[in-house]
Structures are given as structure tokens and as C-alpha cells.
Amino acid sequence: MARIESLGHVGIYAEDLMKMRDFYSRVLGLTISDEDLEERGMTFFTADKEREHHEFVLMKGRVTRDDAKVIQQISFIVPSLDDLREFKARLEVEPDVKIERIVSHGIAFGMYFFDPEGNRIELYVRTPYKVPQPMGDPIDIMASTDDELEAIAKARIPA
Description:
By secondary structure, the protein is of the alpha+beta class. It has two domains: 7-62, 2,3-Dihydroxybiphenyl 1,2-Dioxygenase, domain 1 (Roll); 72-159, Signal recognition particle alu RNA binding heterodimer, srp9/1, CATH 3.30.720.
């Protein structure tokens, strides 16, 4: 039977393309793999240009009602808890960014925040544990060691 192998990329419309382009490249560290700023107003980003041309696209022209819900969230995988900690420190100094919460899902440690245009973004580190979802225990990644966080995740594995 035919099956989907994985998610290829996500594209979102931006009200201020240059502001969002700066945020995703400078703060989150995504590489701009291609763009057409003049005619189409598009920027293509990748986390690994050797593996994938782009995983994320910004395009000018977001038009919605003020109360419209456009995106539930966009999630990016980071390799380690140290990377998650470094991103937390980076995000805390960004004036247009609000960190919503940092949790252990058992299957991952996730940090949720809103980008400069209010889209919910998650950065997460996978764990090897199988824990039923949804589940989210608040954690302090700056004050906790990796071993302490692992114990929190393991504690949610069903008996």
C-alpha cells in the first residue's frame, strides 16, 4: 500500500516577510536556501541543505481576520537539551517573541513560543520513551540537569 514517508515542508504567509525572514534565519538559525523577494515574495529555509532543499517557506501576503486561527503550531526538532537551552536564551532577548511554556511530553522535551507574527512554534528534543499523549509536565530546562529531566520523562512511562 502507498504510504507517506515524512513531512516534506511547511509554508506560511507572512505580513512582514523581511522581519520573519530575519527571525527564522538569525534567531532559529535556519539557512536560506533560495528566495525571490521581488516578484513572488518567497524565502525558502532548510535545516540541512545537503539533505533537503527546504523544509520551511515564508511567502508575503498574509491576509486574515484579526481573530482567525491560521496555524495550530509548527514544530522543529533540535538535537539536544543544550540546543534547547541555547534557543531559550536567544528567544528571551527577542522583543517580539513570547515563550509560552516548556514541558516534558515523555516522548520529547518541548519549548513553545510565538514568533514575531504570533504563530505558535515548538522546538523539541526527542526521547526514546513511549508515553501516551497528550501529556505535558512543566519543566525548568535551565535549572535541571539532563539526568533530572530524563527521570521526569521516564516517570511517565506506563507500567
